[in-house]
Amino acid sequence: MDHLCGSSFWNASLWDRPNPALTICFEQTVLTWPPIAFLWLCSPFLITSLARRVSPRNDCFSCHYMLRQILTFVLLMLSVTVLAIAVLWDVEAETILPPLLYINPALYTATWVLLLVIHEVGRRAGMKTSGVLFNFWFFSFLLGIFPCWTLINKTMHLVKIRDLAPSFLSLTSYSISIVMLLISAFSDVPSDLHSGKEKKSPEANASFLNQLIFYWFDSMVFLGYRKPLKKHDLWPLRKKHRAEVLCGTFEQNMRLGSIETTMSQLSGVKGKSFAQGRNKAKRLPSLLRVLLRTHRGTLLKSGLYKLFYDLLLFVSPQLLKLMITFSEAPSIPQWRGFMYAVLLVGTGIVQTILLQQYFLHCTALGMDVRTTIIGALYSKSLVMSSAARRASTVGEVVNLVSTDMQRFMDVPTYIHLFWSSPLQIVLSLVFLWVELGPAVLAGLAAIVLLLPVNALLTTKSRIYQLKNIDLKDKRLKMMNDILNGIKTLKLYAWEPAFLQRVIDIRVEEVAAMSSSADLCSISIIIFACAPFLLSMASFGVSTLVNKNHFLNAQQVFTSIALFNILRFPMGRLPILTSSLIQASISLQRVEEFLANSELDPCGVGSAPSEGLSVEFREASFCWGGDDDQPNLEGLDLKVKTGSLVAVVGKVCAGKSSLLFAMLGEMERLHGSVDIWGSIAYVPQQAWIQNASLRDNVLFGRIFEPNLYWRVLEACALLPDLDALPASDLTEIGEKGVNLSGGQKQRVSLARAIYSQADVYLLDDPLSAVDSQIGLHILQQALGPQGLLKDKTRVLVTHNVSLLPLADQVAVLKAGQLSEVGTYEQLLLKDQDLLRACCCPEARNNVRSLEYLGALFKTRVPVCPDNGGSMSAHLQGRRLSNMSGSYSWSGKECSHEEALDSSIGGTLIQRELVEVGQVKWGVYKDYVQAMGCVLTLLTTICMLSQNLVVLAQRMWLSDWTRDVLGNVEVGVRLGVYAALGLAQGILVLLSAMFLGRAGIRAAAKLHNRLLHNVLRLPLLFFDTTPAGRITNRFSNDIDIIDEAIPTAVRLWLVCLFSVVVTVFAVTLATPLFIVVVLPLSIFYHFVQRFYVATLRQLRRLDSVSRSPIYSHFGETLSGLPVIRASGHSHRFLQQNFDILNENMLSIYMWIISNRWLAIRLDLVGTLVVFFATLFAVLSRGQLLGGIVGLSITYALNVTQTLNWLVRQTSELETNVIAVERVDEYSHAETEAQWVLEQRPPPEWPKYGNIVFENYSLRYRPDLELILKDITCSLLPAEKVGVVGRTGSGKSSLINGLFRVLEAARGRILIDGIDISSIGLHDLRNQLTIIPQEPVLFSGSLRLNLDPRGQHSSVELWHALEMAHLHHQVLEMPGGLDYPISEGGENLSVGQRQLVCLARALLRRSRILVLDEATAAVDLETDRLIQQTIRSEFVTSTVITIAHRLHTVLDYSRIMVLDHGRIVEFDSPRNLLRKRGLFYCLAQDAGIVVTP
Hints:
Strand content: 5-15%
Radius of gyration: 40 Å
Number of helices: 54
Mean pLDDT: 81
Largest sheet: 6 strands, mixed
Strand order of the largest sheet: 5-6-7-3-8-9
């Protein structure tokens, strides 16, 4: 090197000079070549990546680009000039010049040419900024400071111009390099990008330096401080984080992994057939491997940041060692002390940047992984088979999406600790070996002894985690059942029974959490005391083995700094272990879900014989799963194109299953089924989305006004629009809660008709509508003159009066087609259909065939108030809309504009987002839930623990000063050991106290939430999506269970660490108090300034999670409709949109954390700098031990202060979960379940019901829906309630059950005003068989008798009376037969019969039937009516009926119209009056007009 430079490379004497100096050779090599080498090493990768992005569109020459190119060209000219001067000098020189004079100019010349090329390629690739170029210029500037200083000093002593020229050129080049550094700090953004109207994230155009310090996020923080952030304030998500991009990459890698897995498994099959190998190869690839492949780039980049950060961690202890040496040796030049201070600050700054980039990439990776898996789960749910769908309940899926996905999001933050922790431990031990020698082996042995304990804790913890997750699944599954069946629960007064079931599960869950918390406490004490054990063993052996050896300040405080480094990986191991256990369990659960069976895409063919739309050939089907017994067997059916086929049969004959077989929802065992063209499916229980009525009908299709209004007319929906507050733009609640059963079914039918499909599969769509509307729909939509007259229609029905209209009738019996033919052919054969038609009601319908035919020759008047025809009503609506705020003709108005004109049509209100800081009352609630005593004990133990640690450090500091050994080594070690033991006990106590307090709070808050939610009125559930409520019981409760106790513990640790640290540093260097006070004020201001943004982002995150759960639940309940209509891709895109909205707030929250952290860390380095600076200035006044103690704590105070601010913010954002839980825990409830004033035990004895001027409204601001109802129902009287849709029939029942409280008037039952008693005293004495049967997941016994009040004999008797006895006997398990979620493994008719059996068990004096037999065939209906007449002979029976024949033999009929009683008399008298009831009977074919 000396030959290369022509002078000495290094002179050791320079290190001891009073002023710093370096050799010319060192400056021209070591300080010159690294930036050049860095650029040349990185340039191939940079140019390659830019070349891939080259585009002709990037053809602009920005000022930024031109300036860079000009300056680079100037640098090129300068380097060429310097090289020319060197050549000139060489020619003139008598001796050979050093090669370095040629090498450096040549290197710079080549480098500037390379830069010109990079700039040009970057321009064509649209490069806005480059980290490589910024770092090159930064290193050039940083390493050029010393050479520049030397050149300036040298130039000042030169006289000849010849000698000045090279120095002047070099200084000019350095000045231009500084300018280039400043230019590279800004991004090259073309002006046209700023002028666009589209909102863009400033991150996309931020420069490299801007991205490092997150300066681009400043405006968001300032905005968040000025006002509460809203969703529209956030910037759009970058493309690489969008759900569709992430899920697309994941799907590609999943397919690639599947191919690799298949090939590897097939290649390993020996001695087996290829088919066997192929079946074996159907397993999915490892999910972990696919995730690693999908996100390997981010994972690798974050790993590199972590590696460099870990290596730099060990620089600070060495600098501390040098600093202590400096303070104890007055002969060392003072500039070295200042240099150590600057190096400590510089190291801290680089560590800060590396650490924040590491956390940014890891947390963003966690967000991406969560989004990827949620997208995969949703995609899987769209293709799951029916058997798999029944096995995976909505509650389990929601738990996967909430709890499990949160664990996936947390894991990437700790994933690199897998290798980072061992690396830090090994390096710490290596450096400790240097300080303490072999004595460190004693400490290592102490740590090794702890490993088996840790392994045992890990094994036990996994057991409790598995149990805990399983219990969470059960609890959320039960909650989903409760929310889906909340109306049934309230009407039957079953809330206490189901509340107790949830509490029982929660008790087990809390017990598992308690056991896990105990293990966590043990783990915390082990790893918290591990550094102490290491230091105790190392220091003890070091002093005891060598009696002449004493501890000095350098050894002790360098070792303590290393122990502090060691403390982090040791302390994080319990968290890492717990997180990995939870993540592995979640990974297994997700893999099991993704491995579920899927629908066979080839299950339904598309090539029936010519002239046919549907063709079955010897086809057999089953529902799949464990039972492969065929549910449909030997089907041979041919449906001609354009024909109407009616499918009939008794309950559980397989009618709905036949439609599911056509949809491909069943597993085909034998034969084939082919369907030509697109399919529209109308389920027996209408599936309605939480959207406007128009959106439900359009179902993602383009709005065509003429077709749209014709469809609404055909489905008799136009009169209903007048009753809706915003017409067809009225928002429909979840599951159509604000529509009647008939309206929901007609909306479902309208959706199918609007789709303009080729084949229509209709599962008894007319069962929920009255006869007049049914005839209108037949005439206008389904019949030979309707909109679908040229379409193929397969209609399942129980109404035999429709059969004459069918071109073909298929009779199903026990899963087989017993007969197929025309209606007349089947009547002549005297088969099952004939016997069904021989019931009196059927004969009436058969006699009226001529009447039915006459109806189809005229238009059925389904009219609004004026009695005009539907067509006239339609024309009037069109005209009125043309003159209104928007028009149906021409272009469609925007949805937002339409909503603006229909404010009253909003049913589901936006979720309330709190603003401002979390109220102190929320903290108070949580502390009270924890228990004041436990909270106080935890605080005392935490403070004492930190004081003991301070005492340890001070004892060691005093030990280092005891050179003469005034205190025996045994005493020193004994005191140190005693302090360590005290620390361990206090850590254990604080962990146990806080663990118990956290579990107590979690249990109390959950139970309070559960009790209050079950007491909320039904209106709350009608206007609140189930996803919002589920979010409280899943994500928010999970945060309260796990995140908040951890946040409280870390906050207390940080708080007391800061207090003790500041006290220790101030004690050592009193001048430090001058820095601490303003610094503390600054930290407090930053925390308050920043937390406003963070808090609101967390609230937006919580609010945006609810739609994810709601959309999942809505999709799973409507899968057959979605798949049949071919809209899976649209729903998948909707899921992406919902995920993107949620990710937006999460990503902003991640950036806000990094924004704060880097600023606090950079400011925190000032603490280290000032502590070191004061030590340098106070040299000679402070002992080495005090300096070591001061700087050691100063190095800690940066971390602890930063962590305190972060944990304060983290605690406040986590407490938002308590705030959200409190919102529902204190919501206004319905009336008390039980009052002090209770009715007599035998009440009601007679069943007399009296309405006195009874009026009802849904909300105080709405119109009356029942108006001045006055009537009396005699004991044991059978009363039918009839009326057109919207007349108030169901509202009358709601008033009777006090679902809604009276607006005025009252209801008396046996003389007692029902408003004067508790809700349960009332509802326990009433029984209702609802229109929509609701079953709960669990056993059949549970669904019949959730309170467990009846014996098995009574249950079997009730089933026999409900005509369900034989079917239950055939079920495996009988009364213990497991009912799937929503009763999906039973037919709708069977579910209705189960509801009848419930009513038979209660034996109430008052029975209400709300369209209770709409889903059963006529014969079963007749048997049910006989059962009701015989079993409830002494009961007052109120029946709401669309089938008028079911109430013709009742005592009296109440006819409602627009909320008023218009007729109330016996059926015979009402028919004689020829009023509204007569019109209804005429429409139903009961009265035939001659």
